[in-house]
Every structure is written in structure tokens, then in C-alpha cells.
Design goal:
Blueprint (H helix, E strand, L loop, with lengths): L1 E6 L8 E7 L2 E7 L3 H14 L8 E5 L4 E5 L13 H17 L10 H15 L5 H16 L5 E4 L8 E3 L4 E3 L6 E4 L5 H7 L5 H12 L5 H24 L3 H15 L1
Antiparallel strand pairs: 1-2, 2-3, 3-5, 4-5, 6-9, 7-8
Helix pairs in contact: 2-6, 3-4, 3-7, 4-7, 5-7, 7-8
Magnesium ion (MG) binds next to loops.
């Protein structure tokens, strides 16, 4: 029934993504390596399918950690010119996802996640990034963990142009394998870091905010400022481990700028 075609995912050695045919339809086969990612992605589809922002989930096979998704006939937004219209649509979509999560969420404000990420990634950053920077990020992360957390939603948790499909008008959100509860504002940390290195980045952030439809509260803005440094360190380590040299350089620059 399933005819598997070419591998179209990223060469990062994690989930495998293939173009495929299923019952006469163009589909995507996504095979997770880790069960928890399959569970998270499935949970994302259960929570958000009704928004119309995701591809249709055609079939789920938890035993094989496989999902079959309708193939959206457009390319990844990252491979296209980054426009204000794209970012406005992405902001509006994120707001819909954040507003769609059932409330109250389980007793998890994302603090446990941040705590475990900190303990996993700070030791890995040692020797890779300047000692002074690692110590600064550790101090910032400890301050965050000791303070209040901004309002919590179900986060996408990997919300950048890599995980949007865009046809010039309509945006489809994919790759829910990281979704988890946490502060809404945390969903824009990675994207904001990426855009901070781009000439028209500030314009795109403004368009995104317009689409999202509300300003961050002072508490959220402060949280974002601090968490961006932690996110840049985390991604620098991830890029290094996955052989992405330019990604590592980019995040090192972001980190230096944020900590200067
Ligand atoms: N439903 C879909 N329709 C069209 N292309 C898709 C679809 N799902 C994934 N892709 C393509 O496959 C790539 C990898 O899929 P993704 O779910 O983001 O996996 P990964 O976890 O490896 O990033 C995407 O960037 C996109 O180009
Ligand atoms: Mg992806």
C-alpha cells in the first residue's frame, strides 16, 4: 500500500522523512528515531489538527514510530525569500496554536525542561565556547529558574521557517516532535536569534508580532531577553554535534552579541 520514494528530510541523522505514495495520494512518511518524539508529534496533531494549520495526519503507526502525512505541494519557507507576509502569517498561526491548547495544562510550566536542558547542555558547551560565556549563560539560566515563569501554553518548540510550508498566501506548520508545555514567549527565542543576524530581521520580527496580535508583557519580554542567550548556547552545541559549522558560527556570533 505504501510506496516509499526519495529521502527529503534534513541530513541531521534524527527523524527520517520520505516522499511516498499511499492509496493513490502523495504523502510524506516521517519515521522517528525516538519514541518520545513520536509521542510528542502525535500529541501535537491531536491538539491542533482542528485549526487547519497542519497537514492531514493520514495514518499513525506507534509501533514503527511512523506517521503518514498528506504532502503539501509547496516548499519549505526557509528556501524562499523571507517576506513580511510570510512572518505575519507565521505569527498569526502561532497565536492560533497557543490559543488552541486545552486549559488548564498539566502542572508543568516548562521549568523542568529548562532545568534538564541546562544540565545537559552547559557541560557540553565547556571547551567549545569561551569559559566566560558559559559561566554567564549558567548564571542567567539559574536566574530564570529561580524566578516566575510567564504564562504557559502548549508550545511548538521548534518554530522557525524550517518548519513552515508557504505558498505565498497560506502557511502550514509541520514538525511537532518537540511540542511541550512552556511559556508562550519561549516559542520565539530561536526565531528571534536567527533573525537578529539578518539584514531585514527587525522588520520580519515586527511583522510576526503583528500577526501574533499582541505585544509581549514586560515579564515575557524580560524572560525572552534572558532565554535567548541560553537558546543560542544550546543550538551552538547542537550544531557542533551535528556537523553544522555555519550554524555553530552563527549561534556563536549571536551569543557574543547577546552577552557583550
Ligand atoms: N506534510 C508535508 N508536506 C510537504 N513537505 C513536508 C511535509 N512534512 C515534511 N516535509 C518536508 O520534509 C522536511 C522535514 O520534515 P520535518 O517534519 O520538519 O522533519 P525533521 O524533524 O527532520 O525536521 C520539511 O522541512 C519539509 O521540507
Ligand atoms: Mg523540521
Amino acid at each position: 500500500m505504501l510506496e516509499i520514494g526519495e529521502h527529503i528530510g534534513w541530513a541531521h541523522g534524527e527523524s527520517q522523512v520520505y516522499a511516498a505514495r499511499w492509496a493513490g495520494h502523495d504523502v510524506i512518511l516521517k519515521r522517528h528515531r525516538e519514541r518520545r518524539k513520536h509521542v510528542r508529534e502525535r500529541h501535537g496533531y491531536e491538539t491542533w489538527s482542528h485549526t487547519g494549520l497542519l497537514p492531514d495526519l493520514v495514518h499513525d503507526d506507534p509501533g514503527r514510530l511512523e506517521m503518514i502525512l498528506a504532502r503539501v505541494p509547496t516548499s519549505c519557507a526557509l528556501q524562499q525569500p523571507q517576506t513580511e507576509a510570510m512572518y505575519r502569517a507565521a505569527g498569526a498561526a502561532l497565536r492560533q496554536l497557543h490559543d488552541a491548547a486545552p486549559r488548564p495544562l498539566p502542572f508543568d510550566d516548562g521549568r523542568g525542561d529548562l532545568h534538564s536542558l541546562m544540565h545537559r547542555y552547559l557541560p557540553r558547551a565547556q571547551g567549545l565556547l569561551p569559559d566566560r560565556q558559559v559561566r554567564q549563560v549558567e548564571a542567567l539560566a539559574r536566574t530564570l529558574l529561580a524566578g516566575p515563569f510567564p504564562p504557559t501554553v502548549l508550545r511548538h518548540a521548534d518554530y522557525t521557517a524550517r518548519n513552515w510550508l508557504w505558498d505565498g498566501k497560506r502557511l502550514t506548520v509541520i514538525d511537532l516532535e518537540m511540542c511541550r508545555p512552556g511559556p508562550a514567549v519561549l516559542d520565539v527565542a530561536k526565531m528571534t536569534n536567527d533573525l537578529s543576524q539578518q539584514e531585514n530581521g527587525a522588520t520580519l520580527v515586527a511583522a510576526f508580532r503583528q500577526g501574533y496580535g499582541r505585544d509581549w508583557t514586560p515579564e515575557e519580554a524580560q524572560f525572552l531577553g534572558t532565554v535567548r542567550a541560553f537558546d543560542a548556547l544550546l543550538l551552538a552545541v547542537w550544531c557542533d554535534r551535528h556537523g553544522d559549522e555555519s550554524g555553530f558560527e552563527k549561534m556563536s556570533e549571536v551569543l557574543s552579541r547577546l552577552l557583550s
